[in-house]
Structure formats: structure tokens, C-alpha cells
Design brief:
Blueprint: E1 3-4, H1 5-11, H2 17-25, E2 29-31, E3 34-35, E4 42-43, E5 50-52, E6 55-56, E7 64-69, E8 96-97, E9 106-112, H3 115-122, E10 130-136, H4 143-150, E11 164-167, H5 180-183, E12 191-196, H6 203-210, E13 215-223, E14 226-227, E15 237-239
Parallel strand pairs: 9-13
Antiparallel strand pairs: 1-4, 2-3, 2-5, 5-6, 7-9, 7-15, 8-9, 10-12, 10-13, 11-12, 13-14
Helix pairs in contact: 1-2
The protein binds uracil.
The site of uracil has 8 residues, from helix 6.
Length: 247
């Protein structure tokens, strides 16, 4: 199927129809490497490579990236103070982050233009599991697992939903996700895996604070059916087919 170039670019999130017409007039757009000046020219989204200022725009349709979020980036489409996670995926196409990780939290973050999928993953009614690897400021007590399984008061109207805590032994495979500076000198009981079903503000940090510990490092390892590939480096993103992922 062929569509007009201005519609292709507008659908790809490059601006309104009149904005993209101006971009085309400024000779900023190429199709398969050839500069074009006519907004009405037809492109095939499946086979033509359309670039704006030399950057290839991705084809239409829903797209989801699985990003290994590094610390220092905020989960927002725009921010006046800090770099955003959007800088780590190809631009355009109306992409947005699926939920939020704190600026200092690392790990699995989805970036998509699929509103329905994002809603399913984030809806409080969906109870989608999220597993975090945390390093604490001291050893976890075995009693925390009971506290978290019963729900804890973190100062909200209702206690947290039941969550599952695993205290990692020193040979636990998840420790491979820790940056060198946290793996070196790690003491028994300091690294834990916490699986929560909600996504409240600073939830993991507040749950540990409620039982008398502080989180000094936090990384999300899984979100619903998706896990962070160990080989995916911080700041790297891969396209992900979430519809065909099943737990
Ligand atoms: N819980 C937190 O405290 N921070 C995050 O970034 C995610 C979950």
C-alpha cells in the first residue's frame, strides 16, 4: 500500500500535516536516499526508507522497544532539566514510556506508541508483576518476607498488595545484573528480589523504608512476561514483540 509522504511523516510523529509539508519544502526529506520536495509523492511504508535530516523514520504501526534504562534519565517525553529516556530510542512515531522508573533506577523500561498495551500493563486492575533487584543499606531480615506478603503501610490510604521477597544468597544468578561497584563488597542478605503487583510512587524504596532499611541501588529485571536480557547493555534498546510474549 502506498501513502502520501506528508501523511507518512505525520503518522510517524514528525509533526502536523502542515508542519511536515514545511519540512519537505526545506529539502530535509529523502526517500531511499533521494531528496524529495513534494508532499503528495507516494511512499510504500514497508519498502521505502524515508529519512528526515538524514535520520531514518521507522515504519508505521505499533512499535515497542525494551530499553535497558541507565540511571540519570527521566521517564518523560520531555524534560527541561534532565535527559529523557526518549533520547535512547529512534525518534518520532509518538512514542512514550510505559510507566515510570525513578531517575536513579535502572532496568527494564518499555517505550511504545501502543496505548492499549500500555494501559493493560499499567492498569491497577491488571496486577502485572514487576520484579526489582535491590541492594539495601544492610542485611534484609527474613521477617520482611512475611511483612511484604501481608502488605505494608507506606503512608498511602491502603497498605501495599501482597509482594514476594527473595533474599539472594551470594551465588544467586540475579547478582550478575549488579554493576561491579555493588557486587564488590556485597554482604550476605544485602541483595534482594522484590516482586510487586502495583506501581505506586517510589514503591520499592518506600516498602523497605517502612521496615527500617534504605535502598541504595535499584534495577527492574522484569515487567509482566518480559525480562531484561543480561546481554542488553545500559542505554541499549531492542524491538520487542510483547503480544507474542507469554508468561
Ligand atoms: N520503586 C521505586 O522505589 N522506584 C522505582 O523506580 C520503581 C519502583
Amino acid at each position: 500500500m502506498q501513502i502520501r509522504l506528508d501523511k507518512f511523516l505525520a503518522d510517524a510523529g514528525m509533526g502536523t500535516r502542515s508542519e511536515v509539508k514545511n519540512i519537505i519544502k526545506r529539502k530535509a526529506v529523502t526517500i531511499n536516499g533521494v531528496c524529495v520536495e513534494k508532499p503528495e509523492i507516494k511512499v510504500n511504508p514497508d519498502t521505502d526508507e524515508v529519512a528526515v535530516n538524514g535520520k531514518v523514520t521507522a515504519p508505521r504501526g505499533n512499535v515497542t522497544y525494551l530499553l535497558h534504562k541507565p540511571a540519570g534519565y527521566v521517564c518523560a517525553v520531555e524534560d527541561s532539566r534532565f535527559p529523557t529516556v526518549m533520547e535512547l530510542v529512534p525518534r518520532g512515531r509518538n512514542l512514550f514510556p510505559v510507566g515510570r522508573l525513578d531517575k536513579d533506577t535502572e532496568g527494564l523500561l518499555l517505550i511504545t506508541n501502543d496505548g492499549a498495551m500500555a494501559h493493560r500493563m499499567l492498569s491497577p486492575r491488571s496486577h502485572v508483576d514487576k520484579t526489582y533487584l535491590a541492594v539495601l543499606d544492610g542485611p534484609a531480615k527474613s521477617g520482611y518476607a512475611v511483612d511484604f506478603s501481608e502488605g505494608v503501610d507506606i503512608g498511602d490510604e491502603t497498605p501495599t498488595l501482597p509482594a514476594k521477597l527473595v533474599i539472594c544468597d551470594m551465588a544467586h544468578p540475579s547478582l550478575a545484573y549488579l554493576p561491579e561497584e555493588y557486587r564488590t563488597g556485597l554482604r550476605p542478605g544485602q541483595a534482594v528480589l522484590l516482586t510487586i503487583q502495583e506501581g505506586r510512587y517510589h514503591q520499592v524504596k518506600r516498602m523497605f523504608h517502612a521496615v527500617g532499611r534504605e535502598v541504595i541501588y535499584l534495577k527492574r529485571l522484569s515487567f509482566g512476561p518480559l525480562s531484561l536480557p543480561l546481554s542488553l547493555k545500559k542505554g541499549e534498546a531492542v524491538l520487542c514483540d510483547i503480544e507474542n510474549c507469554r508468561e
